[in-house]
TrEMBL record:
<dbReference type="InterPro" id="IPR018491">
    <property type="entry name" value="SLC12_C"/>
</dbReference>
<dbReference type="GO" id="GO:0016020">
    <property type="term" value="C:membrane"/>
</dbReference>
<feature type="domain" description="SLC12A transporter C-terminal">
    <location>
        <begin position="419"/>
        <end position="504"/>
    </location>
</feature>
<keyword id="KW-0813">Transport</keyword>
<dbReference type="GO" id="GO:0055075">
    <property type="term" value="P:potassium ion homeostasis"/>
</dbReference>
<dbReference type="InterPro" id="IPR004842">
    <property type="entry name" value="SLC12A_fam"/>
</dbReference>
<protein>
    <recommendedName>
        <fullName>Solute carrier family 12 member 9</fullName>
    </recommendedName>
</protein>
<dbReference type="Pfam" id="PF00324">
    <property type="entry name" value="AA_permease"/>
</dbReference>
<dbReference type="GO" id="GO:0015379">
    <property type="term" value="F:potassium:chloride symporter activity"/>
</dbReference>
<keyword id="KW-0472">Membrane</keyword>
<dbReference type="GO" id="GO:0055064">
    <property type="term" value="P:chloride ion homeostasis"/>
</dbReference>
<dbReference type="InterPro" id="IPR004841">
    <property type="entry name" value="AA-permease/SLC12A_dom"/>
</dbReference>
<feature type="domain" description="Amino acid permease/ SLC12A">
    <location>
        <begin position="42"/>
        <end position="408"/>
    </location>
</feature>
<dbReference type="GO" id="GO:0006884">
    <property type="term" value="P:cell volume homeostasis"/>
</dbReference>
<comment type="similarity">
    <text>Belongs to the SLC12A transporter family.</text>
</comment>
<keyword id="KW-0812">Transmembrane</keyword>
<keyword id="KW-1133">Transmembrane helix</keyword>
Length: 721
């Protein structure tokens, strides 16, 4: 019994010891694998540190290093090509240890030298399993891996700022380098297919080192080629990052990266940041996994470059004159479509993510970047399309069914007229909107200098206030002459003003109302900084308001402007008291009151009530109510005057039928001509009748959006306008 127990204990102990030894051995393998991983990454980090020294400190070090690297790569390639001809006898190569597809036995792989049978066997073969990934690679996967070998095509363009003659050096150097690289790849593939059997090519990826006369030269060549590509990408990426930082396209947080040092403005900070990104990528275990992702961004950059060339060619920009003789918009279009198609074919998910990242960066640049002095290609495209369609817009074929207000608003100073400018922006309804201004001065160099300065501030105002309008400023000896020029010359082709709006003539001191509309707008986070900068420039640079008692326009000129507008067949609208309009205060349901002030005059003469002025007032009120802001807060209310109860019923029914026929949503409100007034009735159409009508407006409005006041001036303008 005791021996049995002792034997059992010995077996149990040996089992424990054997298990402990196996676990210890497994743990040792894990430790060794981890140490091998860490040591490999540390060794990979060392060249990156050397890159910093080459790219930054000694002037010209990058060019010298690149030359010696090229010399070493050429020596390595020459040794590989020579080895194909030296090894004429057959010999076998062992399968590498990492190739586990063959199981436990270790067959040998045959190198035949130049052999016609070997070439035929390699010519028509199907892809097999990759022993590193365990998957059958497709042509697109092979493209994604191989494509990284030709990404240096943009290396010359990335350092164009350091080249003496980039217009000559970049295309010539790029084409020569691409042709040389293609020839080397083609010769290597051809020689390998003629000398190496398929099992050797499939199961031993280091066959060039094995068949080389001096195997270490292949290792040196691979190392130098990798070093060259890394240096090229690092210096190119740092230069691009420095340029982006100097342009302040992504905000102030990367502006410091644009700082350069030394005579050549070396991008020290940009190189350090780019190097840190490289070192982060080193921790990826399999480079083939990373290669398709890198290929996506390269393809995206090439596709966008082709897109830019195509757009410039299509827009017929006269200053885009490429010197490459074989360039055309068709080649640019094919290149763009090919890049995007290959992206989707290689990996649709990676393509979608890379395009999404590009769109995000594009939006950030559009909304966050400050105003820049260089040109925008979209302006060239828009100009080309607008010109083409303006030529097709014939003013003689414009029908009344498609009439829309094309407004010329005469503005003396946007500081005091902003509420009116914003209001007219609502009633234009996708029509032409021009802000007209007159500089009263002699036509000389000083006046033109003032005009050039002020027109920029006007456009900044339009942009900051988000007004969809053009600005037209005239230098003239008087306001009336300037307005005549605006009436005759504003617009282009079929887009010319058909309606003139001007403020009411009075002696009141103007107020600075611009802060009520521009400053209190709710801008999004991307536009806020840019709009605040514009707002500051507007407040500083826009013309000052006239002082109390100053009057740059006479009553006769004012009436003459109205006369000139009517002679040219323009609709004339006179705006008053818009300084009291604040759209932010319109929160409860209100009304847009429509007073056809000449309806009774027309009806009294027997011509009916629907004249052109009546219809214009209804049309403008309907257009205003179509705007989402006014539609949600106001209703149209058609006002009319009645003499008695019977007249009220008839008038109300008639106006309801009119609104129904014109498809204008609104309600009818009848006002008795004796409401709150004396019993004396003036003659229709006289001055007294219009004064009587003004009194009816004042006592009849309820929940109005605008106030109507009788003019305190005793001039004819106050009575008749």
């Amino acid at each position: 019994m005791v021996p049995a127990i002792s034997k059992y204990a010995d077996n149990k102990t040996s089992a424990y010891l054997r298990g402990t030894w196996l676990k210890t051995k497994k743990f040792q393998k894990i430790i060794l694998a981890y140490l091998r991983y860490v040591s490999t990454r540390i060794i990979a980090h060392l060249p990156t540190c050397a890159y910093y020294f080459v790219c930054v400190f000694p002037p010209g070090m990058f060019a010298k290093t690149t030359f010696f690297i090229l010399l070493g790569v050429i020596i390595s390639l020459c040794s590989s090509f020579v080895s194909f001809f030296i090894h004429k006898k057959k010999y076998f190569s062992e399968i590498p240890a990492e190739n586990t597809l063959f199981g436990n036995h270790t067959p040998h792989l045959l190198y035949t030298g130049f052999n016609w049978t070997t070439f035929k066997d390699n010519l028509w073969t199907e892809p097999t399993v990759d022993y590193q990934t365990g998957e059958v690679p497709t042509i697109l996967i092979i493209f994604g891996v191989l494509f990284n070998g030709v990404t240096g095509i943009m290396a010359g363009a990335n350092i164009s700022g350091d080249l003496k003659d980039p217009a000559k050096s970049i295309p010539r150097g790029t084409l020569e380098a691409s042709g040389f690289t293609f020839l080397i790849y083609l010769l290597l593939v051809f020689f390998a297919s003629c000398t190496c059997t398929r099992p050797l090519l499939v199961n031993q990826y280091n066959f060039l080192q094995i068949i080389n006369v001096v195997p270490v030269l292949t290792t040196i060549g691979v190392f130098l080629a990798t070093l060259s590509a890394s240096l090229s990408c690092l210096i190119g990426a740092s230069r691009i990052l420095q340029a982006v930082a100097n342009d302040n396209l992504l905000g102030s947080f990367i502006t410091r990266l644009g700082r350069g040092f030394g005579r050549n403005n070396e991008p020290v900070f940009a190189v350090l940041v780019s190097g840190l990104c490289v070192q982060a990528v080193i921790f990826v275990s399999k480079v083939n996994t990373l290669a398709p992702i890198v290929s996506m961004f390269f393809l995206l950059s090439y596709g966008v470059t082709n897109l830019a060339c195509f757009v410039l060619k299509v827009s017929s920009a006269p200053n885009f004159r490429p010197t490459f003789p074989y360039y055309s918009k068709l080649t640019a279009l094919i290149g763009m479509l090919s890049c995007f198609a290959i992206m989707i074919a290689v990996n649709a998910l990676y393509a979608f993510v890379s395009v999404a990242i590009m769109i995000i960066l594009f939006l950030v640049i559009v909304y966050r970047a400050p105003i820049t002095p260089w040109g925008d290609v979209t302006q060239a495209v828009i100009y080309h399309q607008v010109r083409k369609y303006l030529l097709r817009l014939d003013p003689r074929q414009i029908h009344v069914k498609y009439w829309r207000p094309q407004i010329l608003l005469l503005v003396s100073n946007p500081r005091s007229c902003y509420p009116l400018i914003d209001f007219v922006n609502d009633i234009k309804k996708s029509g032409l909107y021009i802000l007209g201004n007159v500089i009263v001065d002699r036509f000389d160099g000083q006046a033109i200098t003032r005009h050039n300065q002020e027109i920029d501030h006007w456009y900044n105002f339009v942009r900051c206030a988000e007004i969809k309008a053009f600005v037209d400023q005239i230098v003239a000896p008087s306001i009336r002459v300037g307005v005549q020029n605006l009436l005759m010359s504003s617009g282009l082709g079929g887009m010319r003003p058909n309606t003139v709006i001007l403020g009411y003539f009075d002696q009141q001191e103007p107020q600075d109302l611009i802060s009520q509309g521009v400053w209190h707008r709710a801008y999004n986070i991307f536009e806020r900084r840019k709009k605040e900068q514009l707002h500051h420039e507007i407040m500083v640079n826009l013309p000052k308001l006239r002082e109390k008692g100053e009057q740059s326009m006479r009553v006769a000129d004012y009436v003459g402007v109205i006369k000139d507008s009517m002679l040219l067949g323009k609709n004339v609208c006179i705006a008053r008291n818009f300084s009291s309009l604040n759209k932010n205060n319109i929160k409860e349901p209100a009304f847009i009151d429509v007073w056809p002030v000449n309806a009774k005059s027309i009806e009294h003469s027997g011509e009916g009530i629907c004249d052109h002025t009546y219809l214009l007032i209804l049309q403008l009120s309907c257009i205003l109510n179509m705007v989402s802001f006014w539609e949600s807060r106001t209703k149209i209310r058609l006002m009319s005057i009645a003499h008695g109860d019977e007249s009220e019923v008839l008038e109300k029914n008639r106006l309801k039928c009119l609104l129904h026929e014109l498809r204008i949503p609104g309600e009818v409100h009848i006002v008795h001509d004796t409401d709150g007034l004396s019993s004396e009735q003036p003659t229709v159409g006289t001055t007294e009748w219009y004064e009587h009508l003004n009194q009816l407006m004042r006592v009849s409005l309820w929940k109005r959006c605008c106030n109507f006041h009788k003019s305190t001036s005793s001039s004819r303008t106050g009575k008749f306008i």
